[in-house]
Amino acid sequence: MKHFINLKDISSRDLKQIIIDAKRRKKLRKKLSTLEVDKGAPLKGKLLIQMFEKSSLRTRLSFYLAIKQLGGGTLTLRSNELHLGQGGESIADTAKILSTYGDGFMLRTDNDKKVESFKKYLSIPVINGLSPSSHPTQVLSDVFTVEEIKKKPISKLNICWIGDSNNVLDSLIAASVKFSFKLSIGCPRKFEPGTKVRNWVIKNKKKIFIYNDPKKAALGADVIFSDKVISLNDKVNKKKKIAQFKKFKINKKLMGHAKKDCIFLHCLPRGNEVTDDIFLGKKSHVWQQALNRVHVQKSILLYCFGKLR
Ligand code: CP
Ligand code: NVA
Fold first, then answer.
1. pLDDT recorded at residue 81
2. pLDDT of residue 272
């Protein structure tokens, strides 16, 4: 049984296999409609239980379509509607029931420890659908999107992140080690990645490049990523933090420091970290990026169910 919790805990080989499988499956689906099942229905009869403690549009829909297209089904729970959410039932007992009724569990939570507790008590695979320290399904899908658009292995590209040091960036940093790509980060000094993730990079004998000047981070980039300055349930003075990111807004001028054919990606939802002309412009591939999550979730599910070929 394989879990999908943090990219840093999954081997490069497995992550690359997931991407290869997703590429193949996407190609094979070209003529199929939304709910038609992939040939062979590899997850026929399987139930994925999804639980959201925070809002979600893309992750929820992409897992719904992913399991359906593989021949299985899904059920979505909100923790506040369970006994667990009211504190009346333990994670251990909840996990036991989930393992008895379902075949896989996808969790979006505000608490990294909760993901680990579920892992401890579940006897079915758990997928992290976003936690404070990680958004692994998003970032693996983003690697897929970059390679699809650039038609090159990501290891040959300069990847840039301009924005907050959040869960998506932590997973992107893990991906930069696993896929060996150059990652330049532009953010205010106060919002640089934490020592835990930086030490992990050093321990893996890799390097990330951090600049407090967004122009320097964008210089020569093939891809610029961004995300909201204020993440879900970010407990900060929002006005103050947004003001601190003022010069890190992605606009035409900043994109001008990157390569001419640089693309813009963003996991969505967006805030005011990017101008409309960039977000909706020719360099932006955010809608393709969002839809690709379906294809990559499918291969993540197959990996977890031990069915990745
Ligand atoms: N990008 C992403 O995870 O979107 P949702 O929060 O809508 O799932
Ligand atoms: N960093 C964002 C990602 C949303 C998909 C958040 O945690 O809210």
1. 87
2. 93
Which residues on neighbouring strands pair with residue 73, listed in sequence order?
47
Instruction: Return the residue whose CA atom lies nearest to atom 5 of ligand 1.
Output: 56
Residue 308: per-residue pLDDT: 94
* C-beta 168 within 6 A of ligand 2: yes
pLDDT of residue 132: 96
pLDDT at 309: 81
Contact predicate 139/131, CB 8 Å: no
pTM for this entry? 0.98
The residue extents of the domains of the chain are: 7-135+293-304, 136-289
Tokens representing residue 15 in the block: 């992550």
Q: Which stretches of the chain score pLDDT less than 70? A: none
Contact 248, 162 (CB under 8 A): yes
Cis bond before residue 269 (omega within 30° of 0): yes
Which of 61, 128, 130 to mutate to test ligand 2, by most ligand atoms within 8 A of the CB atom?
130
State both tokens at 193.
Answer: 């990645």
Segments in the chain forming alpha helices (H): 12-28, 58-69, 91-101, 112-121, 136-150, 167-178, 195-203, 214-218, 238-244, 252-255, 276-279, 286-304
* Predicted pLDDT of residue 86: 77
Q: Whose CA is nearest to atom 1 of ligand 1?
A: 267
> Which pLDDT score, from 0 to 100, does residue 89 have?
94
Ligand 2 centre to CA of 269 (Å) is 8
Residues 210, 195: Cα–Cα separation, whole Å: 13
Q: Which fold has domain 136-289?
A: Rossmann fold (3.40.50)
228 lines ligand 2 (CB under 6 A): yes
Closest CA to 229 of 256, 182, 266, 258: 266
- Contact present, 210 and 148 (Cβ < 8 Å): no
Fold exhibited by the domain 7-135+293-304? Rossmann fold (3.40.50)
Q: Is the dihedral of CA 127, 132, 134, 137 positive or negative?
A: positive
